[in-house]
Design a protein that fits this description.
Blueprint (H helix, E strand, L loop, with lengths): L5 E4 L5 E8 L3 E6 L4 E5 L3 E3 L2 H7 L9 H10 L6 E7 L4 E8 L5 E9 L2 E10 L3 E9 L8 E8 L11 E5 L3 H4 L3 E4 L4 E7 L5 E2 L2 H8 L16 E3 L2 H4 L8 H21 L4 E5 L6 H10 L5 E6 L2 H4 L3 E6 L1
Parallel strand pairs: 16-17
Antiparallel strand pairs: 1-2, 1-5, 2-3, 3-4, 6-7, 6-14, 7-10, 8-9, 8-11, 11-12, 12-15, 13-14, 17-19, 18-19
Length: 317
């Protein structure tokens, strides 16, 4: 049983991907909605690809994401840029950029560590070619840093200017290990991701300003948030009936983090977050986040009579 194996709990309906293997026979599993749960090895079973072949159809109407990604990656006329993780052995994978488009690019690849970064690749990537940018071990999947990829199109003649773009990648196990396919250009099997869709344009003006060290930095102004922030999803968006559990949790955590940061920056002494009781996932994520901060005096469940322990009071140092 290894990191990346898809498993099912023997005494439950949950399925997911192993993200961590610990001594003593314990594993950590990332289930479909992005949550992670601990389990013992003897409580889970590896899901074999033979299972689907035997039953002959998709379980509960869920589409085969492996097949979808694979067919997309195999399409020879798919003019896009891909990143591919190609196995060298059962642990180590080579990382390739595959340019299956008709455009040449100058490419910068950096590993981001908070406010710091290290450039690991800075080269020209010609159309219909691939280049290796490094290697990673699946055993250290949880420790992989955020990867920032920046693409600057090369125009060999006077033509309409194509915008530069960038992608930031931080993989979840439940997404990464589903993305098996055939890498364009390389024609090798691996984990394949298309980069040139859902892209964010690079603001060249902003980039130039950031590089201009002589320009004084603007001092940001922070809006003082209310003393109580209601994180119930229906208070945050009207689109919640169409959102998955992981999307709702992400929006709730982003709202929590933004208002906590504003409270700290504006000099507030305390702030209360109303998260409700529910299944306890949001409360657990909030407490986990707070436990890693150094500028928090303490946090606690607050005013049982008012919130029914569905809220957390944060005292700011």
């Amino acid at each position: 049983m290894n990191i990346g194996d898809r498993v099912r709990l023997l005494h439950g309906n949950e399925e997911g991907v192993i993200t961590k293997v610990s001594p003593g026979g314990r594993v950590e599993i990332e289930i479909e909605d992005g949550f992670r749960i601990p389990a013992m090895k003897n409580e889970v079973v590896v899901i074999s690809s033979i299972e689907k072949q035997y039953f002959g159809k998709e379980k509960d109407g869920v589409k085969d994401s492996f097949k979808a990604v694979s067919s997309e990656a195999k399409a020879g006329d798919n003019k896009a840029v891909f990143i591919a993780y190609i196995p060298l052995n059962d642990k180590d994978h080579s990382i390739y950029l595959c340019n299956n488009s008709d455009r040449d690019y100058m490419v910068l690849v950096s590993e981001v560590y908070g406010e710091n970064s290290q450039t690991v690749f800075a080269e020209r990537l010609n159309a219909k070619t691939s280049k290796k940018t490094g290697e990673k071990s699946i055993q250290n999947f949880e420790e992989w840093p955020v990867m920032l990829l920046q693409f600057f199109p090369i125009h060999h003649k006077i033509e309409k200017t194509e915008k530069s773009f960038e992608r930031k990648l931080k993989f979840k196990a439940s997404v990464f290990f589903k993305s098996k396919g055939m890498a364009p250009i390389l024609d090798k099997n691996g984990y394949i991701f298309k980069l040139s869709e859902n892209i964010r344009d690079i603001d060249i003006k902003q980039l130039n300003e950031e590089l201009n060290a002589g320009k004084p930095l603007a001092i940001p102004e922070f809006e003082r948030p209310p003393k109580e922030i209601d994180l119930h999803i229906e208070k945050l968006t009207k689109e919640h009936p169409f959102m998955s559990n992981s999307e709702m949790l992400k929006m709730q955590m982003e709202t929590f983090e933004k208002n906590l940061n504003y409270a700290i920056a504006s000099g507030m002494d305390e702030i209360t977050f109303i998260h409700g009781i529910g299944n306890g996932v949001l409360k657990k994520e909030i407490h986990k986040y707070l436990s890693h901060l150094g500028n928090i005096k303490y946090f606690q469940d607050t005013q049982k009579s008012r919130f029914g322990y569905g809220a957390t009071l944060v005292r700011i140092s």
